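Subject: Re: docking follow-up (pyridoxal-5'-phosphate)

Dear J.,

Thanks for your patience while I sorted out the input files. As discussed at Tuesday's group meeting, I've set up the holo structure prediction with pyridoxal-5'-phosphate included as the bound ligand rather than trying to dock it afterwards. The sequence and the ligand SMILES I used are pasted below, so you can double-check that they match what you have on your end before we go further.
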Amino acid sequence: MTIDTYANRFVCDLVAYEPGKPIDETARELGLSPEQIVKVASNENPLGPSPLAKIAMREALEEAHIYPDGGGYRLRTAIAESVGMARENVIIGNGSNEIIELLCHTFLNRSTELIAAEHAFVVYKLMATLFGAKYIEVEDPGFVHDLDAMADAITADTRLVFIANPNNPTGTMVDQEAIDRFIKRLPEHVIAVFDEAYIEFPAEAPDTLRYVREGRNVCVLRTFSKIHGLAGLRVGYGLAPAHLADILQKARQPFNVNAIAQAGAIAALADKEHASNTRQLNLEGMAFYEAAFKVRGLEYVPSHANFVLVKTGDGDRVFAEMLKQGVIVRAMRGYKLPDWIRISIGTRSQNERCLEVLDSVIHTA
Ligand SMILES: *Cc1c(COP(=O)(O)O)cnc(C)c1O
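The structure tokens for the complex came back this morning:
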């Protein structure tokens, strides 16, 4: 018998998250330099970090020997101001993924359930599994979350319902009416979690913050990883009624967001220009891909985010063939979509290169 026998079963049984293939690893395997690789696999910002964030982070480096502000006073205040709430409503995390974990750590155990949509972000399932909870998957016809069906699925054991809006990997969004109807039906023992990692990309997005302000059991998750271009820093946040945010605070490590990340995030939040440039580039790139897919008769899911799901047939093969030519996309078998790939919208030249390589791969099929 090895020590493994004594490990928590929920941890051992976990199928690990498979991130987008790193640029360095790909370059090493292909014998290329990293500059020759196009990575459009993790919905990162093709314009890079906010320039204001870079300046703030360089300054923060000088103080790197000092522990960060564990309470995140300045960052939480800046976030609160940006959404018209109080600092007590804000919890910061090592990426918004950490807030997902804190929610699960706080509310799940073996006798509880988490509800999510069939093609929802896969981390919800991983976290439910990690805490031994039952994972309930609700069908999402046309890849759109069916909030009525998700409300129907709630039982006495349900604690968390995750709604990714817009969702990753589908890019679809639920509207205000559906959300309002869902919240009306939300029982007191359940928290609705709106994961809004891509909420800055759609021209118009539903308002979920009103429910936090009203003190409903609602937690809204946002991140600096996408529109602000700070994925490598790992910083995100949750917005919740103060009593809920307080409990989540207890579940985190004392210094969960590092000092460089806090400084970068504060500056990024104020950088409206970088955000609007990113949005504009994304709109143009999305239009480019949609037009290209139409011409080629490729089925795709109209997206409100900074990536698009396209049906290429055998996504594993398309991923592998594209990889050989230095373009990293994401295969979707893990999402039970073996015939699809997900492409993150890049710069104009990245988009053109990606399409060219996709063409060469599909035509040899
Ligand atoms: C990218 C993404 C996040 C952000 O994760 P971070 O930990 O903040 O980098 C959260 N939710 C979804 C659905 C995402 O796609």
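A couple of observations from a first look. DSSP finds 14 helices and 13 strands in the chain. The chain has a mean pLDDT of 96.

Let me know if you'd like me to rerun anything.

Best regards,
T.
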